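Appendix C: a fully annotated inverse folding record. The material below is reproduced so that readers can follow the format used throughout the book. The structure is listed first as tokens, followed by the designed sequence.
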């Protein structure tokens, strides 16, 4: 069970100019702004228009609440995920990358798909948050990694043993 940790997070579509622009415009007392990066984990077998549309809807809802969304990531599960008719992670990653080409802010993170074993969703969220804030792009306190999910994943929140209750907030 090895872990491939040296896979870089794509940053090319992050709206880092939003951070600089917003901080430059605001008075010192209003500079404390909350930023979010959206993350969707799943099989993406295949990725669909609705997967991308969920990112847009989440961004719009958060923006209306004053949260600045700086980017989004699709994170396909690895081949250890046991799902009937799941095609290879390599092909699902390629499909996600093609799907993200038309998006101005959604990218594909290949890290989870490259791992040899199952990765908890919280691990994926934490890795993305750390990669962005650790690169001094924004502070950890100002950045939230937010899960974008469908009703199937949302329903699993009430299934005992699937989620660790103490890790519900990040």
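Designed amino acids, in order:
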């Amino acid at each position: 069970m090895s872990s491939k940790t040296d896979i870089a997070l794509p940053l090319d579509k992050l709206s880092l100019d939003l951070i600089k622009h917003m901080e430059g415009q605001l008075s010192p007392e209003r500079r404390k702004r909350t930023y979010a990066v959206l993350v969707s984990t799943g099989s993406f077998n295949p990725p669909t228009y609705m997967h991308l549309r969920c990112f847009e809807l989440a961004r719009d809802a958060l923006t209306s609440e004053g949260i600045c969304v700086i980017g989004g990531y699709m994170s396909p599960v690895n081949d250890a995920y046991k799902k009937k008719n799941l095609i290879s992670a390599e092909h699902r990653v390629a499909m996600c990358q093609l799907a993200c080409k038309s998006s101005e802010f959604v990218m594909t993170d290949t890290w989870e798909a490259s791992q040899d074993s199952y990765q908890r969703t919280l691990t994926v969220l934490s890795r993305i948050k750390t990669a962005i804030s650790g690169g001094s792009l924004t502070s950890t306190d100002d950045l939230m990694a937010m899960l974008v999910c469908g009703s199937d994943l949302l329903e699993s929140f009430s299934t005992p043993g699937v989620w660790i209750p103490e890790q519900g907030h990040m």
